[in-house]
Structures are given as structure tokens and as C-alpha cells.
Amino acid sequence: MTADHHHPAELAPVEARIAAIESVLVEKGLLDTEAVDAIVRNFEDNLGPMNGAKVVARAWTDQAYKERLLADGTAAIRELGFEGPEGDYMVVVENTPEVHNLVVCTLCSCYPWPTLGLPPKWYKAPAYRSRAVREPRKLLAEMGTVIPDGVEIRVWDSSAEARYLVLPMRPDGTDQMTEEQLAGIVTRDSMIGVQRL
Amino acid sequence: MTSGLDDTSLPRDNGELVFEAPWQARALAMAVALVEKLDLPWDAFRHRLMTEIASDPQRPYYESWCAALESMAIDLELTTPGALDAAAPTEREPL
User: Given this model, what pLDDT does residue A34 score?
Assistant: First the structure.
């Protein structure tokens, strides 16, 4: 540590606290800096909505897989190699012409890390967490997604027992696309249910 | 983008930064690592996070995360507030 280092040396209190927790726990042998680094790298490199998109594309192209996915989300997602913290108790909810599904975590920000990575900022905001339950149709419209009046909106509140992933409807005109191409059109927001493809 | 060194290494998600600062990534990873190390269910941490968010809904998310991590470490008697005070760095380590 040098005084003339070109990075700002000023530490926010929370940043200093996190550093203190890490150094104390490392010293006690309860944390391993390398292991913490590896978890950060995993989030940066391997976890994200591209994984969930593969699950959706497989379900769109393989009816038997889709049935397994809807029956036991955790097991079917693990088939594609996606598992880990916040990836247990996966429940996949299917959008249909009659039903649109929306996922929220009202109490904190539970989110399926292996398939979607970390949640976007708005997902963690108090406004989204309360309004998704109270007035989902209005909230979705404000986010640019108008759900027709005849379509029921089902809101799924994440909990210890369940992490939800929305299986969007396969868009028209995609019959000729390969599974890989299909994965390319599946967005994070469509798997949370704030967007329709 | 002009924020320099870290910019390309930070994860992006639909164009949005997942972590706004490196300490947030460490806070998250430390909770995951500690729960694994102690062989606790993830809920052991998640319930604390829920409590911290409920107690101060407007606090930035990762500050609640930090508070939850600290309360877990203290309640499990892994450390003490005094030990954390003493261990707090006064300047950022060079990247």
C-alpha cells in the first residue's frame, strides 16, 4: 500500500467494514481469499441469463424436456449443468395465451442465480417488490409490457421453498430457428416476466 | 465509459452493472463462502438479509447485505464488533 497510489484511497464506511469482515474471517481460517475470488469470478463469467435462455430454448424444442422442466425445475435445469446456490427449489412457470407469469421477491431479492445471474437493480427496489403484487398490470405497462385485459397475470413471490423462472411463449415466426438461435432471443426480462417476447 | 481500470472486468447484465463496486462482489461472495464453510443452509443468511432490508427499506441493497453478513458473523461468535473496528482498513488496497 503506497500513499501515492493512483486510485482514490478514501474508503466508504461499508467498504471498510466488508474489508474488515474479510480480513478477520480469513485470519480465523473461516474464509479463504482464493475461494472468495473464485466465487466472484464464477458470477462474472458463468452465471447469467444466457443459462436460463438455454433452458428456455431447450424447452421450446424438446417437448419431453419441457415436461420434465415443468414437473421438476431443479432437476431439469441441472441436466443442462446449471446448479448451485439459489438454484435449488426451482419452479418453472409457463406463459400461455391465457396466463402471464411475473416473478418477484417481496421480502428480499431471492433470484435464481444459476439461470439468471444476479438480479438487476430494479428487481431489488422497494417499488418493484411491492407494486408487482399490488398492481402488476399497471407496473408491467409502465415497464413497457402491456398485458391484454383477457390475460390473467399470476404473480409468484419467491421464498425459501421456491425460486421461479418464467418460461416465455415461443414467438411466432421462429419455426426455422435452431435451439442455439432461439437461446439468443430469450431475454433476462422475459424470464422474470416483465417482458413478452 | 470513463471509470477506468475496473470497467471491463465488471459483470454486465442487459447493459446494467451487476456490481457497482468491487466491495459488493466481495460481500456477496463472502456470504456464499461462509455459509458453505459452516455447512449452513442458505436461509441462515437469507433471513438476516430479509430482516436488514425490512428494518431500513431505503438503505442501498448491498449495505443491507453487509449488515446481514456482519450480524451473522457476530451472532455465530466468529468475531466481535470491536475486532471488526480494529481490523477496518483506512485506505483501499491497490488493485
Answer: 92
A190: annotated active-site residue: no
Q: How many residues does chain B have?
A: 95
Q: Into how many domains does chain B fold?
A: 1
Closest CA to A1 of B94, B95, B87: B94
A105 noted as active-site residue = yes
- Measure the N-to-C terminal CA separation of chain A; round to a whole number of Å: 50
Out of B28, B34, B43, the one facing A30 most closely (by C-beta) is B34
CA distance B15 to B11: 9
Which residues form the domain of B31? 21-87
**Best of A18, A41, A116 to disrupt the B interface by mutation (most B CBs within 10 Å)?**
A18
Q: Average the pLDDT over A148-168 and give the result.
A: 93
ipTM of the complex as predicted: 0.82
Q: Do the beta carbons of residue A118 and residue A193 sit within 8 Å?
A: no
Q: Please give the interface size between A and B, counted as residue pairs whose CB atoms are below 8 Å apart.
A: 149
B66/chain A closest Cα distance in angstroms: 7
Chain-centroid distance of CA B71 in Å reads 12
In words, the CATH class of domain A49-192 is alpha beta
